[in-house]
Write a structure and sequence with these properties.
This protein is α/β, with parallel strands linked by helices. It contains 9 helices and 12 strands. Helix content is 38%, strand content 15%. Bound molecules: zinc ion.
Length: 315
Amino acid sequence: MIHGVLDESLGSFWVPSWQRTSTAQLEATITVLKKYYRFVSMDEVADLLAGKSVTKCPVMALTFDDGYRNVLTDASPALEAENVPAIVYLISVSLDIKKLMWIDRMDYVLQQTNALSVDILLKNRSVTIRLAEWESFVQDFRDFRIEVKCMYEDDLQMNQTLEAEIGRLESLAMASLTSASVEDRVSALLSSADLEGLGSKILFGSHTVSHVRLDHIGPERLEWELAESKKKIEGHTGKNCQHFCFPNGDFNRESVDALLKQGYRTAVTTLEGCNKIGDAELLALRRVPIPYSTQNYEIVHAIAVNLFRSAKVEV
Ligand SMILES: [Zn+2]
């Protein structure tokens, strides 16, 4: 499981407080894991787990969440050099219009604000984020992201509030990542024009239309998020979109049933661990986060620890 990737040697327009995977980390992880695993596509993962094909050695699939454009600029040269397939889970609204993750917009604008702290208004109370020092800012912004997700039961309402608060901060700071004129490798998401550039070994899956948590929306919206994103991705790639990634890792029985009904073959969670052939819930698969290291023994250790978690996910 990988999100954004940044080649640190290239520098960037700004530094996000939420650490991205470096290209060096990605390369080191692939090199080490190639000794123990065969890298396969999610199509092959689906076939193997469903018992439609067999393998002599354990397999690994690389998954990129959120569809950051830096998968194209900062990760795909390494993937091509190593000849490994991967899947990118797209937030389909960003294929047609420039849309950024709220986390990135807020991260950026907070860093542009000339104040010692800011208060963010949520529901009926405000949350303070300290800005004077980097460490306290990173910690407060991380806590804020957790808190905001706990506070709202309805993601559409949460997104509306965040949109308004980010807009207010952008006016105060007179800076906005959305309107920045530079091509930002940190936050830009893949557009439909970018998809072809990723080559034939990259599959595209759905990460919903608008990155909402599936257990925090109503049944009609759930159906729409799954169907509309699938249709949009299939329209742009000309291929079946059969794989899904749960935003924030949130899933429940209803969302798994809805995925099955819409014709998805696999769905990945953020539950850590590996998936056993013949004993895995294909629509709630475990994953292993990419280790934050370029040291061989640390990478092997982080992956090995995850192998102990292999019980089938019950939904
Ligand atoms: Zn996501």
